[in-house]
Amino acid sequence: MEEKFLKILKENQNILHKISRLYRDSHDDQQDLFQEIVYQLWKSFPAFRGDAKISTWIYRVALNTAIASFRKAKISTDHFDSIPEQLQHNDNSGISENEERLFAALRKLNDSEKAIISLFLEDYSYQEIATITGITENYVGVKINRIKEKLKMIINK
Predict the structure, then answer these.
(1) Nearest residue to 62 (alpha-carbon basis) of 44, 80, 79
(2) Which residues form the RNA polymerase sigma-70 region domain (predicted)?
């Protein structure tokens, strides 16, 4: 089971990196969130039935963890001695100035907006976004248009 879990994480670790960067500003906080997401995925892995795509499940757990951790006084990260080497958090080197500006603008969105736009940027369909976030497909379209307008305003300030 551990090998299967690590293989799935390795194939989908970009999701964890993006969510960590989106919901945390500092590199240390991003690493902490990354580790907390890995822990929550490991904890819930035995219950994953395969009803949804594995990436959909990973996004749901990652987003719920990122949002829930804001409510906690401190993120608990003492679950592992270390993250397996192939899953180490990236150091954000090679990120262009435009990408950094985009992430800075995305961080100014509220939690639900961040979740929706991150899925949209990953080319998830409106139906998949609706499934992950628990809102209707039509409302996904409305929210995406509003978020795009809000991002334009943030970036053009």
Answers:
(1) 44
(2) 10-74
